[in-house]
Write a structure and sequence with these properties.
Elements lengths: L1 H32 L10 H17 L1 H20 L6 H25 L10
């Protein structure tokens, strides 16, 4: 166990040295590549204005999202009505989607309990 800890400390030290040598160059390159997204002047007031713009833009997009949601619901209703015409591929995709939703639910439950597995006897 002590050897593992020493190895982990060594790896962490190497990673820290790499970041300290190359981190600032990477930061400068990243800022330079994305300078069209940087607002000038970079003030608190500008940040507040941008956050309000984002909030109200998202708020304004709700009716479009609402309409898209009901279109999807209508599509599912139509597919359910005509389920005798359903292809195996469509049924497989629906099953995989359901399985993925269940897996995300289970993962969320595990994370919510603090990564503990309860109710299982090993």
């Amino acid at each position: 166990m002590a050897a593992r800890l020493k190895q982990l400390q060594s790896k962490a030290c190497q990673a820290t040295q790499f970041v300290s040598k190359h981190g600032s160059a990477y930061y400068k390159q990243l800022v330079e590549q994305n300078k069209q997204y940087i607002q000038q002047p970079p003030t608190v007031e500008k940040c507040n204005e941008l956050s309000k713009q984002l909030f109200y833009t998202r708020l304004a997009s709700i009716p479009g999202r609402y309409e898209s949601f009901w279109k999807e619901v209508d599509y599912v209703k139509h597919m359910w009505k005509n389920r005798h015409e359903l292809k195996v591929e469509d049924a497989g995709i629906a099953a995989l989607f359901g399985l993925e939703c269940f897996a995300w639910y289970c993962a969320g439950e595990i994370v919510g309990r603090g990564f503990t597995f309860t109710g299982y006897y090993v």
